[in-house]
Amino acid sequence: MDSMRKSRLSHYKQDRLTEHFVSGSTARTAASLCGVNRKTAAFYFLRLREIIAYELEAESAGMFAGEIEVPSRRLFQSPAEQRTRATSAASAKANVGVERRARYPFLVY
Predict the structure, then answer these.
(1) Which residues contact 106 (CB under 8 A, 6 or more apart)?
(2) pLDDT digits over 7-50, tens only?
(3) Burial of 15 (C-beta count, 10 Å sphere; 0-12/13-18/19+)
(4) CA 56 to CA 73: how far, in whole Å?
(5) Contact, 38 vs 27, CB < 8 A?
(6) How crowded is the C-beta side of 66, counted as CA atoms within 13 Å?
(7) Rounded to an integer, what distance in angstroms lies between the CA atom of residue 81 and that of residue 74?
(8) Cα gap 73→101, rounded to integer Å
(9) What is the DSSP string of 39-87?
(10) CA 34 to the chain's CA centroid
(11) Measured between alpha carbons, how far is 109 from 98 in angstroms, rounded to an integer?
């Protein structure tokens, strides 16, 4: 990974801090393990978060640029509504000509 420009930290310490950032360590723990001031590590972690947010924003802006196509109404229904519609349509087709009597709708008396 490239090091930050205009940083007084050595590339080795920057790489170590980045490793600790990725692993989820706190800035204070990373500072004590890398041998830097805790405020320096906290500032470095803040800068990393800002860079990540900037890159994600730039990526999403490019992804969502342009025209938007509105999907069909079926996509806005819940899965339960889709199953209900599909089941009722299938049963309506299957029950053509079947009389519904008593408790056994599948038998014709």
Answers:
(1) 98
(2) 788 999 999 999 999 999 999 999 999 999 999 999 999 999 99
(3) middle
(4) 30
(5) yes
(6) 5
(7) 9
(8) 36
(9) HHHHHHHHHHHHHHHHHHHHHHHHHT-S--PPPPGGGGS-HHHHHHHHH
(10) 32
(11) 10
